[in-house]
Design a protein that fits this description.
Blueprint lengths: L5 H4 L11 H4 L12 H8 L9 H5 L6 H9 L3 H11 L3 H7 L3 H4 L12 H14 L15 E5 L3 H12 L3 E6 L7 H4 L8 H14 L2 E4 L9 H7 L2 E4 L5 E2 L12 E3 H14 L13 E5 L3 H13 L3 E5 L26 H4 L3 E3 L2 E9 L2 E13 L2 E4 L5 E4 L2 E4 L3 E3 L27 E3 L2 H4 L4 H20 L17
Parallel strand pairs: 1-2, 1-4, 2-3, 4-16, 6-14, 7-8, 7-14, 8-9
Antiparallel strand pairs: 5-15, 10-11, 11-12, 11-13
Helix pairs in contact: 3-5, 3-9, 5-6, 5-9, 6-9, 7-9, 10-18, 14-15
Length: 479
């Protein structure tokens, strides 16, 4: 146990400071500064090393949280990163982009602020890289088996690393020009510095993983041909089909989905160039439809691009600030939160139902918005409450409805690729990991599923279970 009295003597959550808003809006650097080691150690001492550690259940990866909290408190960082890497291939990604369901399940959180698990995780991996403790782990021998991984987001990278370390020859196919998937092109730099992605890609390459970028399976190579060339295939293409908003005026220029917008912005940051004009918020009134993390990313991006104004619309009620009876501990509740992007500016509106888009030959000029009403049939705009909201750029950030189709694979009722509990499809040797099979979810679930799909693929190839498998495909945990 980190400190038998820690949770009694240190009762407050201490978080790393954020850079001042006025400064961070002028660049794309990460918003949060590194936490001071003494703060991290003090927070780690609050961990009670519970007899039943519910944080394990809260984390899809089953991270050994009490163990590395104790080691962090004792200043044994090298041992802490070894414990962390036992279950999580990429803690610097989850430490920055995961909403921390582990903290929602923290036992201390029943009557005190939860342990700052996410911040401690970040500190462990940052210290490990700073001291050179993170090194490539190439396999001692090769199996002679070839595995294709399609998609290089967190699920694909986790599967590739596990399979490479198991001795298979792994080739990752990515249709973009650089590997990383949403880690590189979907998450803004102010949340996840792309040097961190480059660093991990370099480790994978040093271990023997091969990357083929600019290759779209189904276009540049058929799915049947891919299957013939490899002994096994892991599909980790994500849930790339966005939710549509079929309203009058939808075809007006200037109404775009969130992911193309964020991708263009990330490309511009990487190349120190400009985003295409129709995907640039500079000088425009921006409306973001959708109140989730993707919408928040759009807000922060638009503000940095120099938008005249940014308004976020959510169709539902504003979440509560405290748990309700329907969201008891240790579930991960839906609470009202102010993200770093919302701290930086913009207006948030709830119970806002878009009725139609207005515009002219140049493109969108506004939205007609009504108050959301609730009936027995569901939600619908309330007559007589409509108002006009002006906008030159409308970003649709309402989530995703499924995976892009794959030749020879079925889909389920949610639009995801069908698979069994072992991540296997009806096609022998083909497995599905991450959002492509799970539906839109969290980065921590993507990594967990990538690891588990890799374990199933390895067992298929070798006839025995040799890799850890933290989750089943049907396991939705408490989330």
């Amino acid at each position: 146990m980190a400190d038998p009295h820690g949770f009694l003597t240190v009762r407050e959550r201490e978080l790393a400071p954020k850079r001042p808003v006025a400064l961070r809006l002028r660049d794309w650097r990460e918003v949060v500064d590194p936490a001071q080691p003494e703060i991290v150690a003090r927070q780690a001492s609050r961990c009670m090393d519970c007899g039943v550690a519910f944080c394990h259940q809260g984390c899809p990866l089953g991270n050994l949280i009490p163990e590395w909290n104790d080691l962090t408190h004792r200043g044994r960082g090298r041992e802490a990163i070894e414990r962390l890497h036992e279950t999580n291939n990429f803690p610097e990604f989850t430490g920055r982009a995961c909403p921390a369901p582990c903290e929602s399940a923290c036992v201390l959180g029943i009557n005190q602020p939860a342990v700052t698990i996410k911040q401690i995780e970040n500190s462990i991996i940052d210290e490990a890289f700073a001291h050179g403790w993170v090194t490539p782990h190439p396999p001692e021998r090769l199996t002679g088996k070839r595995v294709a991984v399609v998609g290089s987001g967190p699920a694909g990278l986790a599967a590739a690393q596990q399979l490479t370390r198991a001795g298979h020859t792994v080739v990752v196919f990515e249709r973009d020009e650089e590997p990383g998937g949403l880690l590189r092109f979907g998450i803004p730099d102010f949340k996840l510095d792309k040097q961190l992605v480059e660093r991990r890609i370099g480790q994978l390459k040093a271990e023997g993983t091969r990357f083929r970028c600019g290759v779209a399976i189904g276009r540049d190579m058929s799915w049947p041909e891919l299957r013939r060339r490899f002994d096994a295939v892991v599909v980790a293409t994500g849930a790339a089909v966005p939710r549509e908003l079929p309203l009058p005026g939808r075809n007006l220029a200037g109404i775009v989905h969130a992911m193309p917008y964020l991708t263009a912005a990330n490309h511009a940051v990487a190349t120190r160039g400009d985003a295409p004009d129709h995907l640039d918020a500079r000088g425009k009134r921006v409306v973001v439809i959708g109140g989730g993390d993707t919408g928040s990313d759009c807000v922060g991006t638009a503000l940095r691009q120099g938008a005249t104004s940014v308004t976020s619309l959510a169709i539902g009620r504003q979440p509560t600030s405290e748990r309700t009876a329907g969201q008891p501990w240790p579930t991960h509740p839906n609470l009202f939160e102010v993200s770093s992007s919302h701290e930086e500016g913009g207006d948030r509106r709830y119970l806002a139902s878009t009725v139609e888009f207005t515009g002219d030959e140049r493109g969108v000029t506004g939205l007609r918005v009504a108050e959301t009403g609730f009936t027995a049939g569901g939600r619908e705009p309330l007559p007589g409450t409509e108002r006009l909201l002006e906008a030159e750029l409308v970003l649709l950030a309402m989530g995703f409805v499924g995976a892009e189709p794959v030749t020879g694979l079925d889909t389920d009722g949610r639009g995801a690729l069908a698979r069994d509990d072992r991540f296997a499809t009806a096609e022998p040797g083909v497995f599905v990991a991450g959002d492509a099979g799970r539906g839109q979810s969290l980065i921590v679930w993507a990594i967990a599923e990538g690891r588990s799909a890799a374990a199933s693929a390895d067992a298929y190839l070798m006839g025995e279970i040799r890799l850890p498998s933290p989750v089943r495909a049907s396991d939705r945990g408490m989330h």
